[in-house]
Design goal:
211 residues, Tetracycline Repressor, domain 2, mainly alpha, Arc Repressor Mutant, subunit A
């Protein structure tokens, strides 16, 4: 019985998340209301509030699903890659790029409109947390303040590239963007702050998530 209940909860949460995404593409995040979401999902207001306090909590649940997928890919990449810091770093990057390209209308809205700024901030924070894990795993040397600075530098660089790429229709393949970004970022960090390790890594596999 509990499993059936859990499945119903998951289905309802997914239904509401999908309704939010559809309305964001149609109207933008700021203009979307709880009423818009429940109308699109065809559920009652009581059902919505049984799962989420407000639309911000609903959005947060979607981003947490994205975080979980990226974290899994990051951990998998760390296990599979035996190369140097340039190959091991930013293990989430390809998965994030593929996710953005597979949801292009949504991400185009997020980065292309002022109303998407709140969502971009939440994604930026998620990327920064993943970068911090990467730097810790790669043995980044320095004080807490230096690590925080490096984290924001890398996260900001990644978000800038992601925004530029989406603004230009995501024409370059995700794999190509991933290679260039990791090469530029990790070369800069490896120059003075990471343990030297220049062994070559095997080619990276596609890591598209399903979130």
């Amino acid at each position: 019985m509990k499993r059936a209940t859990d499945r119903r909860v998951q289905r309802t949460r997914q239904l509401l998340q999908d309704a939010l995404i559809a309305m964001m593409i149609e109207k933008g995040y700021e203009a979307t209301t709880v009423q818009d979401i429940i109308d699109r999902a065809n559920v009652g207001r009581a059902t919505f509030y049984a799962h989420f306090a407000d639309k911000e909590a609903l959005l947060a649940s979607r981003i947490e699903d994205l975080r979980a997928m990226l974290t899994q890919q990051q951990q998998q990449q760390a296990l599979e890659t035996r190369g140097g810091v340039r190959e091991r770093g930013l293990g989430f990057s390809l998965a994030m790029l593929e996710h953005a390209r597979s949801h292009l209308p949504l991400y185009a809205m997020i980065v292309g409109q002022p109303s998407g700024a709140f969502v971009v901030q939440r994604i930026h924070r998620t990327i920064a947390d993943l970068v911090a894990l990467d730097l810790k795993g790669l043995g980044f040397k320095g004080t807490a303040e230096q690590r925080a600075l490096a984290t924001e530098y890398v996260a900001g660089a990644f978000m800038a590239v992601l925004t530029w790429w989406l603004d230009h229709g995501a024409k370059l393949p995700p794999q190509e963007v991933d290679v260039i970004v990791r090469r530029l970022v990790m070369q800069g960090l490896a120059a003075g702050e990471l343990r030297p390790d220049e062994e070559k890594a095997p080619p990276r596999k596609s890591q598209r998530g399903s979130v």
